[in-house]
Please model this.
Amino acid sequence: MDADSLYGIVHFNFHERSEFTSILTSILTSETSEKYNNMVVKDKQEKELRYSREFGVRFSEVDIMGVVWHGSYPLYLEDAREAWGHHYGLCYDDYLKNDVFAPIVDMDIRYHRPIFYSTKPRIDIAYQFSPAAKIIFDYEIHDTADNALLTSARTIQAFTDKNYELILENPDFYLRWKRSMFNIE
Model:
């Protein structure tokens, strides 16, 4: 989904569509934000912020062919983000306590092989560090029987305040979390 498509779905209080499109495009493509463009990871061997969990396929998630319906995959990604957050100390409660939302602004899912009702999958999630005010996760879903790659995905989340105004700088709580997880000056 591009910025123009998202404009019609998500409401941010911008005066012009072009302003919204320009800002969202910069979030999706930039590797730095203006305020924190000097954020440097001192240790080039960054911590791998990975988490894995096995999950079961519920009957309600499959179609008439016994294959997981494509609309179920975003829920698998959401469950993985939530489990990852509990593991690494960046839970949804932290966002809410700080009056911040983190909506998904980009989601890319690649279906390599079908997941069947009988499949016992594992989802691997990896946080991708960025100095910009965004959260990037990469995902892989594997079959635990043979470790075959079934699905790969990526999500990008931006920050908004409780009035749905886009936040262009790292929120303080998120910046503190980044500094605690990475060797950042």
